[in-house]
């Protein structure tokens, strides 16, 4: 076969494979202003509310964990919505994603999915906080199925998940052990409510820290839903302090405390605690894999005009 014909066929197949899935230039023609709109909005709100980046990052993870990144966590309107799951306690900034969507709709009507806006907002949140700027492929479509809180109950990890459960959960998404440890570095941002520490196992590395947690979060306290502890001393900066704390026995959640004790995860906790650049690289890879797993593309799903309703 003529080499020119082979080249044309290769380009044709490559284009259609990319067009039916995710790509790094998906909106270059249909909405070239998109990246700047999302970046400006996230930066502005993060300046006025420094807790915004941690909220956006957690919002994305909770959406992606339930049937892929499809913006189903943003849907309202029924008592069965994903937000009815107790595992979505403390989720915030859903309305902010809807606000960005309304801004995008004015410029690029019915072109950009809420799912992509949510992923891009989380990406910008990481970068704004001092973390890596992650190049993410786009082209996700939104779910049109009514959300179900029972699915969220099953698929979202419990607050007391251990290393075995964490690895099982994330390797199903295609993450390696190193990437699984890295993605938990997202805990470097934000706080942990005392409610999520009630079933936390002991941490023999640092009994003094255990006592501090018990004092701040006494078991059975009626204030457990509003009281909290900072994840680390730089809780508004995306850095490797989470891993430094974990190595020193100051991991807040059960998984944070267990990882430096497990032979499978300890080498990566130590690596990231000593080398922030290595953490950023592994986190970026994990972020792309998680946000690209089991997504709706092409003719699947819809483009919602409103992120919190089934309008499309």
UniProtKB/TrEMBL annotation:
Obligatory cofactor(s): Ca(2+); heme b
Reaction equations catalysed: 2 a phenolic donor + H2O2 = 2 a phenolic radical donor + 2 H2O
Name of protein: Peroxidase
Entry EC number(s): 1.11.1.7
Record PANTHER family: PEROXIDASE, PTHR31517
Regions crossing the membrane: none
Annotated signal peptide: 1-21
First-tier enzyme category under EC: oxidoreductase
CDD domains in alphabetical order: secretory_peroxidase
Keywords, in A-Z order: Calcium, Disulfide bond, Glycoprotein, Heme, Hydrogen peroxide, Iron, Metal-binding, Oxidoreductase, Peroxidase, Secreted, Signal
Cofactor note: Binds 2 calcium ions per subunit.
Keyword Secreted among UniProt keywords: yes
Cellular compartments annotated: Secreted
Domain Plant heme peroxidase family profile: 21-311
Tree of life domain: Eukaryota
Pfam families for the chain: peroxidase (PF00141)
Record-stated family: Belongs to the peroxidase family. Classical plant (class III) peroxidase subfamily.
Protein function: Removal of H(2)O(2), oxidation of toxic reductants, biosynthesis and degradation of lignin, suberization, auxin catabolism, response to environmental stresses such as wounding, pathogen attack and oxidative stress.
């Amino acid at each position: 076969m003529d080499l020119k014909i082979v080249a044309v066929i290769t380009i044709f197949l490559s284009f259609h494979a990319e067009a039916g899935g995710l790509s790094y230039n998906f909106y270059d023609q249909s909405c070239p202003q998109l990246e700047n709109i999302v970046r400006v909005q996230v930066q502005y709100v993060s300046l006025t509310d420094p807790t915004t980046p941690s909220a956006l990052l957690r919002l994305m993870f909770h959406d992606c964990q339930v049937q892929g990144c499809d913006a189903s966590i943003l849907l309202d309107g029924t008592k069965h919505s994903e937000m009815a799951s107790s595992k979505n306690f403390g989720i915030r900034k859903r309305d902010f994603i809807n606000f960005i969507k309304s801004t995008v709709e004015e410029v690029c009507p019915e072109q950009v999915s809420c799912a992509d806006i949510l992923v891009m907002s989380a990406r910008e949140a990481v970068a704004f906080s001092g973390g890596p700027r992650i190049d993410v492929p786009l082209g996700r479509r939104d779910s049109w199925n009514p959300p179900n809180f029972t699915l969220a109950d099953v698929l979202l990890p419990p607050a007391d998940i251990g290393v075995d459960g964490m690895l099982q959960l994330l390797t199903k998404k295609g993450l390696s052990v190193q990437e699984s440890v890295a993605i938990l570095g997202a805990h470097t941002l934000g706080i942990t409510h005392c409610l999520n520490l009630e079933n936390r196992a002991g941490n023999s590395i640092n009994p003094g820290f255990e006592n501090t947690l018990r004092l701040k979060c006494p078991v059975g306290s009626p204030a457990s839903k509003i009281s909290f502890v900072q994840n680390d001393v730089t809780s508004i900066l995306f850095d490797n302090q989470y891993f430094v704390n974990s190595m020193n026995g100051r991991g807040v959640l059960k998984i944070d405390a267990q990882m430096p004790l497990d032979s499978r995860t300890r080498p990566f906790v130590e690596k990231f605690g000593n080398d922030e650049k290595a953490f950023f690289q592994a986190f970026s890879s994990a972020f792309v894999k998680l946000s690209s797993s089991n997504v709706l593309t092409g003719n699947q799903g819809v483009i919602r005009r409103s992120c919190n309703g089934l309008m499309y």
